[in-house]
Amino acid sequence: MDHPVRSSARHAHACSCEVLVEIAGSPEVAALLESHGVDARTLAAARAEQHASLNSEPGDWRGRLPSTGAADPVQRLLAIVRSADCHGYRLLEAAGVDCPSLRRQVVDRRPRTATVRAPRADRPRAVHTRPFPTPTTSGRSPRLRAVAEPRPPVRANQLAAVVPVTVAAPEPEAARPGPAARPELRPIDPATLPALFGRERELAALGDALTRRAHRPALLLAPAGSGRTLLASHVAGSVHRPCFVLSALSYAEDDEHALRRDLAAVDVAGGLAIFDDFDRVVLEASPAWLAELTQAWVRDQPRVLPVVSAEGLGRLAQWIPGVLEIADVLRVESLEGPALGDAVTAAAPSVLAGHGVALGGDLRPAEFVRLADRFLVGLAQPGRALDLLDLAGARARRRGDATITRAALHELVAERAQLPVARISARGDQDVLELESRLATRVVGHVEAIAAIAQLVRRNRAGLGGARPVLGALLLGPSGVGKTELAKALAWALFEREDALVRLDMSEYAEPHTVARIVGAPPGYVGYEQGGALTEPLLRHPHTVVLLDEIEKAHRDVHQLLLQILDEGRLTDGRGRTVDFRHAAIVMTSNLGAQCVRRVGHRARMNEAEVLDIARAAFPIELWNRIEAPLVMQPLAPDELRKICRRIAKTSSDRLLHERGVRYALSDAACEHLVARAGNDPGLGARPLRHLVAREIDPLVADAVLRGRVRAGDALSIDVEHGQLVAR
Q: What does the radius of gyration of the chain's CA atoms come to, in whole angstroms?
């Protein structure tokens, strides 16, 4: 915190680069920088090269300089490496310095800790040197919460041993925490904990793991929202010892002393430390306190139970390799079944009371469970349903409503899921009953393929789809027949959003290592921060059509990923997160069998059985058996090409109307002229038509517009004269 008296260093330099170059000449800082292969001359050269290209820096980094001892070059270096947005920090990175490592190195130069003996057997065992304060109404400490229960008395010979309890030695003035940084342990009656539903088996397994004689580090692996903290807190009744909940958010990234003190206090009390909120800490590297946590966890001094998600487990595996191999990992999944409804019903009154609202007469907590499970993603259950209830209560209170109505709830879910309100309220079922006609407005021909897709979608909407995706279809046929256009039309018809389509060109995934690009790289590998090309969009918007173009060109390892998606409707990404595909429609396209085209009169046709045999031989048999609808899309007939030609021209005319207020239309002669020019090659489909409209129609219209022959509100007609296209 800044004090009224400011150090001279804050006035002497306009930029942290100047401070860094100055202190780099001091022996202490020079030694630190030398260990990273950098000296003052290197920094001065780098500063002269890049300083002019940097934007002005915020002055917040100066606030980290202590009011006393600011002249200490090491303290000034610490202020710089703690401020990632200052120029000095960027200068160090440009010179090749690992700033988090340097920051920990600076912190480690502080005075270390001393070892003390445990209390004598004839002395009352206490956590602090002073008695616990009387509990107040100010709430529990943000760092340390306790769940205490009577525990068996400790024998005198156990207390007589020397216990390596560590306490912090006096720290420099700038790093010494104030009185508020040492919260007291406040025991909490376990009877005050909310009831636990549906976790009896997990609670028993957790109690067994924490009370075994042969110590083995235990770890609770559970997704956020599953009630993992409540489950861990209830274990106090099984282990018969005080249970303390330590939040990772309460410990500075580069300060291990606070956690060391708290772990020592828990050890003296003979308690269990539940280390929570690890997933909520934004970490650019392993924090300094991780070593203290790992040492206590592995040595059972005190017994520690980390609570992490799959992503947090990946971080731990990267930072402390090998340790997790000896851990007893207890997995907890999202709550399901009747226990889920009971948990939400029990927690709903407190959530509603917090907002001062009530549920409408036609609403029950079970409705929040149903809507959250069907339309929303993110937290595990029951956290997802309770989060929806909290949002609904917040909106009702903001609007001044006394109750949460069903209509308001459906509106909120529609906004969050990016779906029409009619879909949430089940009034949108009429749309899927008319899905064939809705798709036909965007796709020409292919009546059989459209009908098969519509039947599968209706089956899923009726609730018969189970855990599988909405659709798992393979569209076969030559190029240009409308396979991709059918997928786009399906996205618009189902979700009424043009962007409800995730398209992957599978020819880019022909190598085995490209699997990591689809699901995301694991921790420690390049691309980990970006997520998977398939899994990341589905995590944000699960109601999506997934288009996998040229699926036959993907590597067999990629095909193996599709097995789990098509069969179970889920996939685990590189971070260990489970991605839900139950609300997605999977559409794969392929040109396999395109050579099986035969002329039947004036129309080209494909032998469907022959095409399907070729496709079956190209895919693994286990993948082929999971494709619900392998569909052959026949080459386009001449009359279908004419319809497509008019639609392409109308799309171009609509763009012109939006930009200039001018429209145009094709005459029958112009349409026949374009279709004849495009030819009737079944291997090309309608693609030549699109190119002809762009090359021959658009220039004519553009010339008329730019020369002023037509104004806003006018309409052009494209016709044929003497074998040439003209605009009138």
A: 34
Tokens of 23: 């202190």
CB 477 within 8 A of CB 629: no
- For residue 474 the two structure tokens come to 């393979």
DSSP E strands, 372-436? 403-404
Q: Residue 118's closest CA among 273, 289, 265?
A: 265
Q: Which amino acid is at 717?
A: S
Start-end of H helices in 428-482: 429-433, 435-440, 447-461
Euclidean distance between CA atoms 271 and 149, whole angstroms: 10
Q: Give SS3 for 332.
A: coil
pLDDT tens for 251-296 read: 877 777 888 888 988 888 888 899 998 888 876 678 888 888 988 9
What the chain holds in terms of domains, given with CATH numbers, is 9-108 (no CATH), 115-119+142-151+158-171+182-331 (3.40.50.300), 338-424 (1.10.8.60), 429-632 (3.40.50.300), 638-727 (1.10.8.60)
Please count the other Cβ atoms lying within 10 Å of the Cβ belonging to residue 141: 17
- What is the C-alpha to C-alpha distance for residues 506 and 525, in angstroms, rounded to an integer? 22
Task: Identify the pLDDT of residue 382.
Answer: 94
- Nearest Cα residue to 560 out of 529, 598, 519, 600: 519
Q: Which of 481, 444, 407 is nearest to 635 (CA)?
A: 481
Distance CA 44, CA 24 (A): 9
60 three-state secondary structure: helix
DSSP string for 617-644 = HHS-HHHHTT-SEEEE-PPPPHHHHHHH
Q: Each residue of 431-478: pLDDT tens digit?
A: 788 889 889 988 888 889 999 999 999 988 887 877 889 999 999 988
Q: Can you list the residues of the chain whose pLDDT is less than 70?
A: 1-14, 50-71, 109-189, 283-284, 426-429, 523-529, 600-602, 683
Instruction: Quickly list DSSP for 84-137.
Output: TTSHHHHHHHHTT--HHHHHHHHHHTS---EEEPPPPTTS---SSSSPPPPP-T
Which pLDDT does position 43 carry in this prediction?
85
> What's the CA gap between 144 and 229, in Å, rounded?
13
Cα–Cα distances (Å) from 547 to 123, 343, 509, in that order, read 72, 38, 14
Helix ranges, 228-337 (H):
228-234, 236-239, 257-268, 290-299, 310-319
Which alpha helices (H) appear in 441-555, and where do they start and end? 447-461, 483-495, 515-519, 535-540
Model confidence pTM above 0.70: no
Spatial distance between the Cα atoms of 9 and 606, rounded to a whole number of angstroms: 81
How many angstroms separate the CA atoms of 460 and 285, rounded?
45
Q: 399 with 393: CB under 8 angstroms?
A: no
DSSP single-letter state for residue 695 = I
Taking Cα atoms as reference points, which of 281, 286, 278, 260 lies closest to residue 100? 286
**Distance between alpha carbon 627 and the CA centroid of its chain, in Å?**
28
**pLDDT given at position 121:** 36
